[in-house]
Design a protein that fits this description.
258 residues; 11 helices; globular; binds 1,3-dihydroxyacetonephosphate
């Protein structure tokens, strides 16, 4: 059984005070949810305080990026041991905003995913097509290439903790969600690909999240799809009310998806 993951990507929002307040608000509301893996990913500078606030709670903390070297002269970068030392458990890797604005490629994603797993953090590896690629009918090819490129050289045991997030770029922050069927088509293709690259058992065990304008009013229909195992949420994760709503709906739906 795949436990659903609801992860909030706070992007470059919330200073330390705001972040701790938001974390506290969410914590108060979801303390009794035990069938959803809840994750928040604040900006780097907030991570220490948010980890402290959420210590011993049912909410886990992730970073939005990392570097693959353990330490060294890499100005501006943050390493996996540093993230671990403050209590982070996850790292979002290869988000489309990082691919688009900061030169992230399948190769750098591959190195970062490897470093996360080697260092004991759970990578949430993001993939997704831009609008022009969707309109040209290239979605499945683009996503296939990103998934295989990101996982190049890894064996089945190595990727045990991996989480994949499918985020169509045209649906991010636009209010234009992929329909549940559009999302399911890509999720099921990713699972088929994992099955070919590894095994059916492995493919069946990996969580594939959907991201792109997920809101309280569309989460249920998305989560009803057989291959959607949770969501990576931007805008709606910045307010405790909407994020908590999404968590509660997911928790309520949880009825033995295989
Ligand atoms: P929105 O939920 O704001 O569309 O953002 C999605 C996203 O990029 C999460 O990583």
């Amino acid at each position: 059984m795949r436990i659903p993951v609801i992860a909030g990507n706070w992007k470059m929002y919330k200073d330390v005070r705001e972040a701790v307040e938001l974390a506290n608000d969410i914590k108060r509301e979801v303390y009794n949810v035990d069938n959803v893996e809840i994750v928040v990913c604040p900006p780097f500078v907030d991570l220490g305080d948010v980890c402290e606030m959420l210590d011993e709670s049912n909410i886990l903390v992730g970073a939005q990026n990392c570097y693959w070297e353990k330490e060294g002269a890499f100005t501006g970068e943050v390493s996996i041991p540093m993230l671990k030392s403050i209590g982070c458990k996850y790292v979002v890797i290869g988000h489309s905003e990082r691919r688009q604005f900061f030169g992230e490629t399948d190769e750098t994603v591959n190195k970062k995913v490897a470093a996360c797993i080697n260092g004991g953090l759970i990578p949430i590896m993001c993939v997704g097509e831009v609008l022009a690629e969707r309109e040209a009918g290239k979605t499945l090819d683009v996503v296939k290439k990103q998934v295989s490129g990101g996982l190049k050289g890894f064996n089945e045991t190595f990727i045990s903790t991996l989480i994949i997030a499918y985020e169509p770029v045209w649906a991010i922050g636009t209010g234009r969600t992929a329909t549940p069927l559009q999302a399911q088509e890509v999720h099921s293709m990713i699972r088929d690909l994992l099955s070919k690259l590894y095994s059916k058992a492995k493919a069946d065990s990996i969580r594939i999240l959907y991201g792109g304008s997920v809101k309280p009013d569309n989460i249920v229909d998305l989560m009803k799809q057989g291959d959607i195992d949770g969501a990576l949420i931007g805008g709606a994760s910045l307010k405790s009310a909407s994020f908590v709503d999404i968590i509660r709906s997911t928790s309520g739906l949880r009825s033995g998806k295989k």
